[in-house]
Specification:
Blueprint lengths: L6 E4 L9 E7 L18 E20 L5 E21 L6 E7 L16 H13 L5 E6 L10 H16 L6 H9 L5 H4 L4 E5 L4 E4 L5 H8 L4 E7 L6 H11 L10 H7 L1 H12 L4 E4 L6 E4 L3 H13 L5 E7 L4 E5 L1
Parallel strand pairs: 1-12, 5-6
Antiparallel strand pairs: 2-5, 3-4, 3-13, 4-6, 4-7, 7-8, 9-11, 9-12, 10-11
Helix pairs in contact: 1-2, 6-7, 7-8, 8-9
Enzyme class: transferase
Protein name: 4-diphosphocytidyl-2-C-methyl-D-erythritol kinase
Pfam family, one: GHMP_kinases_N
Length: 337
């Protein structure tokens, strides 16, 4: 099989989108600061650009029955400036919700068998409607740019963006703490994605302690190179998070891995390990599997090293798609009437 030459994307939140699309409609289905302020007049449309996430550290502990068998985690989240956009538009009362998904790289989201009612954004809308005592009469459109099934939290970003958008669309003006509490019922890293930046996650990942840029830990992370330019090496193939955790339960963590899932991901997707080695040899300050993989994240100190890593990845066809971004990143909210 011939190697695939990777494409390079310089990512901005305002990138053009809409190549492939899939939608569902039903009429019978029931930046963050400490407070997200709403205008007096209810906006008709709210768009939220929400960044991907990676894990600078991901320590995996034992499973807990009270968490449905999920593993205990101690992680440092970092939001990476590759953005999905969720647009929420108010619909007539009783019209129900609709969901459209568009983008060039949809992965299994493009499958005709995908149940859009189980999409993370739809579940977030339903959770907000239940908490607010309202019907989910909202049209959602997701413009996908975050690679799917890649360990970058794209589904979690879409859910967080929906929480932020609906909070503004319905003039709820709920504080971040309340949005995070709702997010925690939906997934481990969704509470982090509500605000982005850098934060520590404990519990099964849902208990968030923000790390501000001017804090001692924030400054130390920046000095260690966990800020600034980032390259994301993405793949056409996807990894199942449950499969990676199952493999971890068998093989455990690599001796020197800050991400305890890295050895498992690399065993299932060897190109990720090769991309890490190449990025490190080319001068990246840090290179590792993002979350459960298979994507690889490389923090680089300058344009010269970035170009060296890109060349290494391209020459050996070690990744399928290369995205240049900045970290840490934050969600942004736009309103139109």
């Amino acid at each position: 099989m011939s190697a695939i030459s990777p494409t390079l994307v310089r990512h901005r939140a305002s990138d053009a989108a809409a190549i492939a699309a899939t939608a569902v409609n039903t009429a019978n289905t029931a930046s963050a600061s400490d407070t997200l302020h709403a205008s007096n007049a209810t906006p008709l449309t709210v768009s939220v650009d929400c960044p991907a996430k990676t894990n600078l550290v991901l320590h995996v502990g034992p499973t807990h029955e009270e968490w449905g068998g999920r593993h205990e985690l101690d992680t440092i989240y970092c939001a990476v400036g590759v953005y999905d956009t969720v647009t929420a538009t108010a619909k007539q009362p009783g019209a129900g919700f609709s969901l459209a998904i568009e983008g060039a790289y949809l992965g299994d989201l493009a499958s005709s068998s995908a149940d859009m009612r189980r999409n993370h954004a739809a579940l977030a809308l339903f959770a907000m409607a239940e908490a607010a005592g309202r019907e989910p009469d909202v049209a959602l459109t997701i413009t996908k740019r975050i690679p799917v099934g890649a360990g970058l939290g794209g589904g979690s970003a879409d859910a967080a963006a929906t929480l932020l958008a609906v909070n503004r669309l319905w003039d709820l003006n709920w504080p971040v703490a309340r949005l995070r509490a709702i997010a925690a019922t939906l997934g481990a890293d969704m509470p982090f994605c509500v605000t982005g930046g850098i934060a520590r996650g404990t519990g099964f990942g849902e208990r968030i302690t923000d790390i501000t840029p001017d804090s001692e830990q924030g400054l130390r992370l920046a000095q260690e190179g966990f800020a600034g330019q980032v390259l994301v090496g993405a793949y056409q193939s996807q990894l199942s998070t449950p499969e990676v955790y199952h493999t971890f339960d068998v093989v455990g963590a690599g001796a020197q891995d800050a991400n305890h899932l890295q050895a498992s991901a690399v065993s299932l997707h060897p190109r990720s390990g090769q991309a890490i080695e190449a990025a490190t040899a080319a001068g990246a300050r840090h290179a590792f599997v993002s979350g459960s993989g298979p994507s690889v994240v490389a923090f680089v100190p300058d344009d010269t090293v970035a170009d060296q890593v890109i060349t290494a990845w391209r020459d050996e066809a070690l990744v399928d798609r290369i995205i240049r971004a900045i970290a840490p990143a934050k969600p942004s909210i736009g309103v139109s009437h």
